C-alpha cells in the first residue's frame, strides 16, 4: 500500500512540474493566454496532492507503529528510492515555482509601468493620451497569478 501512495504522490508532482515548466516557457514567449487554464489545473493537482500526501502519511505512521524497529529498517530499497524521488520532485517543484514567481513579477512590473505611462498616473500630465477621468486602470486590467 505504501508503494501505491508513493507512486500516486510522485505522479501528481510530475504533473505539477510539467505544467510549471510549460508555463515558464509560455511566459518567456509571451503566450500568456495558456497560463490561466494551467493555474486551474495546478490548483486541482494541489488538492489531489494534499489528499494523496495524507494517505501516504497515514501509511507511514501505521507502518512505524506496527513495529518497534525504526522506519528506515522497515522500508525496502524500492520504498527508499521512491521516497528519494519524492524529495527530489519536491525540490524541483520548489525551484520551478521560484523561477515562475520571478517571471510573473517581471511581467507584472512591466505592465504596471506601461499602465503608469499610458494613463500618466505618476507624472505631470503631459503624456496622458489614453487618460479619461472616468478610467480607473485597475478596472481595465486584471492580473491572475
Automatic annotation (TrEMBL):
It holds the Pfam family FlgN. GO terms for biological process: bacterial-type flagellum assembly. Keywords: Cell projection, Cilium, Flagellum. InterPro entries: FlgN-like. This is Flagellar biosynthesis protein FlgN. The gene is flgN.
Amino acid at each position: 500500500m505504501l508503494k501505491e501512495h508513493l507512486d500516486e504522490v510522485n505522479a501528481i508532482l510530475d504533473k505539477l512540474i510539467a505544467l510549471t515548466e510549460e508555463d515558464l516557457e509560455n511566459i518567456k514567449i509571451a503566450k500568456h493566454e495558456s497560463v490561466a487554464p494551467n493555474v486551474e489545473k495546478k490548483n486541482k493537482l494541489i488538492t489531489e496532492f494534499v489528499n494523496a500526501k495524507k494517505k501516504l502519511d497515514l501509511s507511514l505512521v501505521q507502518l512505524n507503529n506496527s513495529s518497534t524497529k525504526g522506519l528506515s529498517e522497515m522500508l525496502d530499497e524500492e520504498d527508499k528510492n521512491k521516497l528519494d524521488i519524492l524529495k527530489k520532485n519536491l525540490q524541483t517543484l520548489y525551484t520551478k515555482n521560484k523561477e515562475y514567481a520571478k517571471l510573473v513579477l517581471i511581467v507584472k512590473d512591466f505592465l504596471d509601468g506601461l499602465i503608469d505611462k499610458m494613463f500618466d498616473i505618476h507624472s505631470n500630465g503631459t503624456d496622458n493620451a489614453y487618460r479619461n477621468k472616468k478610467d480607473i486602470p485597475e478596472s481595465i486590467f486584471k492580473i491572475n497569478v
